[in-house]
Every structure is written in C-alpha cells, then in structure tokens.
Amino acid sequence: MFELGATAGASAAGRSTVGLYHLAWEVDTLAELERLERALAERGALGGASDHGTTKSLYGRDPDGLEFEVAWVVPADRLDDAALAARTRIGRLDLAAEKDRYGATTAGGVGISTSAR
Question: How many whole angstroms from its chain centre is CA 81?
C-alpha cells in the first residue's frame, strides 16, 4: 500500500499507540475474495482469514507491516439468524463452504452497503 522505506518500524497503532490500525476494502463476490486470498498468499502478505457472520474477511500486511482487510459482505436478504449471531464472535473462514452457501458470484453487500443492482 504505502511504503515508508526499509528503515520504517512495524506499526503498533491500535495495539499500544494511537494511529491507523487498518483499512478495509469490500469486494463484490466470494470468487474475488478467493482470488485475492491466493494473490496475498503468493506474496507472503496474507495474515489471516475470519468469518464474522455478516462479513467474510481476509487480512494482509503491506511492506511496512500495516494491516489491511478485504471483506465480502453478506447481502441483506441472505442474512439469517446464524449469520447475525456469529457477528459477535470471530470464526475461521472456510471460503469453500461460504461459496457453497452463498454462491461464488453472488453480489455482496446488496441492501447493506450497495443498492440492489
């Protein structure tokens, strides 16, 4: 994302000091999230993956160690009691299971972060 240089230290923002903790971007489909998972892993930048119930998220680190998030948002009309209950806990993301559940090309965020297409 933003490189400060080889002598820059890792950011402690959001952990032990004030500062930018992380940025987040939304992707349109789980297929795109899966593509980004592979790209981040290939570059050694994938830090983790979480299921927040209403969002499915990947976490990466830029060259200076700043964390960023890439998320797919479950469409409003697909939210159920299980997804809403899960938003209070973080679980391990199983992208294959989420693609089976919602479809790889289902547009995310409809009714929440975007209008109906």
Answer: 21
Query: Mind listing the domains of the chain with CATH numbers?
Result: 22-102 (3.10.180.10)
Which of 15, 14, 68, 17 minimizes the C-alpha distance to 39? 68
Residues 83-110: b if buried by 16+ CB within 10 A, e if exposed: beebeeeeeebebeebbeebeeebebbb
Percent of the chain, pLDDT > 90? 49
pTM as predicted: 0.77
Dihedral through CA 56, CA 106, CA 115, CA 74, nearest 10? -30
Residue 6 has pLDDT above 80, yes or no: no
For the chain, strand residue ranges (E) read 22-26, 46-51, 55-61, 67-73, 91-92
